[in-house]
Amino acid sequence: MPALRSASRALIVPVAIGSMVLCGAPAQADNVIGGGTQTPPPKKDVHGDSDGGTLSSTAGVVVFDRSKNGSGQSAGPVTSSTTWTPPACYYAPKYTPEQLKKYLEPTWEAGSTGYEWDAEQRDRYVNGHPYKDFNKDKAGKGYWWDFYVTPGREGDPGALDCGKPIFWVDENDDPPAAIPQAITAEVLAQLAYAEVRVPSTKMDLAPQANTKVNLPTWAWLDAAEFKPVSVTASVPLLGIQATTTAEPVSVKIEPGTADAETYPASGVCQIQNGRIGEPYAKGKTHEAPPCGVKYLRSSGDGSYQLKATVTWKIHWTGTGVAGEQRLPDGSFGGEQNVVVQEIQAVNR
Q1: Do residues 226 and 310 touch, judged by C-beta distance below 8 A?
Q2: Which residues have C-beta within 8 Å of that of residue 331, sequence separation ≥ 6?
Q3: Could you give the number of structural domains in the chain?
């Protein structure tokens, strides 16, 4: 309920956020732009492809195009290499002047928020301090902006960062610079970051089944699978969009035991000529692989958990920006069993 939101955040906002998650009251579709509300959260209009993966979806006024994203059950989100995370909430157009009137007046008439509070709200949106009569004289020339919680982040503490009261933005004007969560091409790129999905990191190995003590094991990634992926986020109402792209740049190998050596010694294999690592070829048995591992001790009756984590360089382009803009690198990894046998020599 917007009448509650700009009060003391320590006391009031948690109640408002909680109502978004728990309240089951249906939203009035004709009261908001794009059908988004705070109670309950904006519904997503999702369209899936034949494999069940989401090609595009609408959350509030933001539309996501995932047609060039990673797919499949093993695909997953990247984790930022820094403490930065995509926004848990944002501000975007939500009401026309008439829609805001229909949304707020029933709250004031109910009297559930108290006379003093209702009077302050009327003063803000009706009496000219600073807005007069819900800005009806500007109908068709702008929108009332309000906050949206990013789907899936309703319980995130960051969802409380959007505590500003509903504000007006004229058509073709930028939102206030003092409100960093207001939707822009950059914020769209950050929201798209959270939607990026990349393939699971299972290395191709040679030997493929069981390897041997002191025998270099070659490791590489499937070049056809590990390629750039992207998600585009847009707000058609404002004519802005941003495309966030993730490109694989390296893989870090962790053998799962201290009794092992990696190739290279750092364990980080960089992308070269469009691929990470090199497939084993006959006749290279005694060569050191450009990417791989050599185990120095048998795994006994069990196996070692080899972990491979791919680092993805992430950048974006969008409305009003020149060239690629960087976002924090992301990573996504996986583990696989490696059986190491106590045999000193083997013919391949």
Answers
A1: yes
A2: 78, 79, 81, 309, 310, 311, 312
A3: 2
User: Binning pLDDT at 50, 70 and 90, where does residue 60 land?
Assistant: low
Does a structural domain hold residue 67?
no
Both tokens of 318, joined, read: 């969008």
Q: Are 131 and 217 contained in the same domain? A: no
User: Same domain, yes or no, for 158 and 213?
Assistant: no
Q: Does residue 78 lie in a domain region?
A: no
Are 317 and 275 found together in one domain?
Answer: yes
Q: Which of 332, 319, 120, 140 is nearest to 234 (CA)?
A: 319
Phi (first) and psi of residue 33, to 5 degrees: -75, 125
Q: CA-to-CA distance for 2 and 107, rounded, in angstroms?
A: 9
pLDDT of residue 120: 95
The reported pLDDT for the residue numbered 208 is: 84
Identify whether residues 51 and 114 lie together within a single domain: yes
More confident residue, 218 or 26: 218
34: Cβ–Cβ under 8 A, 6 or more apart, which residues?
A: 42, 58, 60, 61, 94, 237
Mean pLDDT, rounded, for 164-186: 95
The SS3 call for residue 161 is: helix
Q: pTM to 2 decimals? A: 0.80
The domain in which residue 25 lies consists of 2-60+88-180
